[in-house]
Amino acid sequence: MGVNGYGTIGKRVADAVTTQSDMDLVGVGKTSPDFVAEQARLRGYDLYAPDRSHADLRASGIEPAGTTEALVEAADLVVDATPGGIGAENAPLYGRHETPAIFQGAEDDSLVDVSFNARSNYEAANGVDRTRVVSCNTTGLCRLLTPLSETFGIEKVRVTLVRRGGDPAQSSRGPIDAVLPDPISIPSHHGPDVQTVLPDLDIDTMGTKVPTTHMHFHAVNVTLESAPTAATVRDTLAGEPRLLVLPEGLGFTGTGTVVELARDSTRPRNDIWENIIWGESIALNGTDLYLFQAIHQEANVVPENIDAIRSMLGVTDGPTSRHRTNEALGLELPVTTE
Ligand code: NAD
Q1: Is the whole model's pTM more than 0.90, yes or no?
Q2: 303 preceded by cis ω (within 30°)?
Q3: Which of 11, 12, 78, 104 to mutate to test the pocket of ligand 1 (most atoms within 8 A of CB)?
Q4: I want to staple 157 with a disulfide (CB 3.0 to 4.6 A). Which of 23, 168, 203, 262 is the partner?
């Protein structure tokens, strides 16, 4: 595998590839000679870059392994994790080399054959050339809504997304001291993005941004087609390996405590690959389900990228791939047993 774009998502996907016994990492595409490039070198990753960046990389003590073209040619598949819009610019390069490519959430759905979530439509990406792993928020919603739909049926979904202002390293982002309706117009674009994966789902979303960096937070209302008990819903969700239902009484008062849990675990970069669902929040009023969930935006799309690779290359079926990915990553936090 090649990973082009070695930032928040790319560095995590590259590491995840190296944990999978059925994948090898050819190298990573990196354009700027910064501390992140140095960290990639220290991990033993070959760095590929356009010709124009080679002199800068050499000046910082990094010998490029070749051009980005060479990376694309050598890899069976490229995961493009460049910023939104750059993936579309890179698409012709992948096409010239007939290298299948996975793009990320900020690219447009029209760029790809399939917008992908491993739990919702794994088989749809089988054998296609271009897939988009949907955004962190959309991934979190697809993972939650697919088992609810399969088990109870869904009539209507309404979600308010309280989004982090920026990732921890993005000091130029905001807001610093405000709550932003974002976008101000309602419904937000998040519902239509979920529909790129689950086209028949009736979903309305509202978006906000707040001055935190660590997680997104969703207030979810789903009108189901049946009226289960809260305990039944909870058991259904707890049975999904990428949904972590937090036990009651252990002091999980908010996203800060969830991040602290991740810090206390042995996970790389404090990553939380699962949706975090507060068990106490799961409530039913007739057919109306309510719950709170949090999403670690830097991490939750990483297992989905790994599964998208297997689906596109036709390696195995969805359940097997998800299991392999989860096992290799070490998806269970130590505190999860109830
Ligand atoms: P990022 O800015 O952290 O990383 C992008 C990297 O690509 C940077 O290292 C940048 O230098 C590099 N780059 C820029 N142009 C390049 C080029 N032409 N060739 C090679 N490398 C180039 O961005 P990110 O947060 O990792 O986001 C990448 C994609 O993942 C976006 O589509 C984004 O929407 C999506 N995504 C981001 C998050 C998140 O929370 N950060 C979550 C889910 C999905």
Answers
A1: yes
A2: no
A3: 104
A4: 203
Place of tokens 């039913």: 284
Is 88's C-beta closer than 6 angstroms to any atom of ligand 1? no
- Assess contact for 35 and 11: CB atoms under 8 A: no
- Is residue 136 flagged as an active site residue? yes
Give the number of other CB atoms < 10 A from CB of residue 92: 9
**Dist CA 97 CA 69 (whole Å):** 8
Whether 154 contacts 222, CB under 8 Å:
yes
Residue 127 neighbours by CB distance under 10 Å? 11
Q: Whose CA is nearest to atom 12 of ligand 1?
A: 5
Find the mean pLDDT for residues 267-293.
96
pLDDT at 334: 58
Instruction: Give the confidence band of 333 by pLDDT, cuts at 50, 70, 90.
Output: low
φ/ψ of 59, rounded to 5, equals -60, -30
**CA–CA distance, 200 with 153 (Å, rounded to integer):** 12
Mutate to test the pocket of ligand 1, among 71, 82, 90, 143 (most ligand atoms within 8 A of CB): 82
- Express each pLDDT in 84-131 by its tens digit: 999 999 999 999 999 999 999 999 999 999 999 999 999 999 999 999
Q: Helices 302-312 and 318-329 meet at what angle, rounded to 10?
A: 140
Mean pLDDT of 160-170: 96
CB 112 within 8 A of CB 130: yes
CB 261 within 8 A of CB 276: no
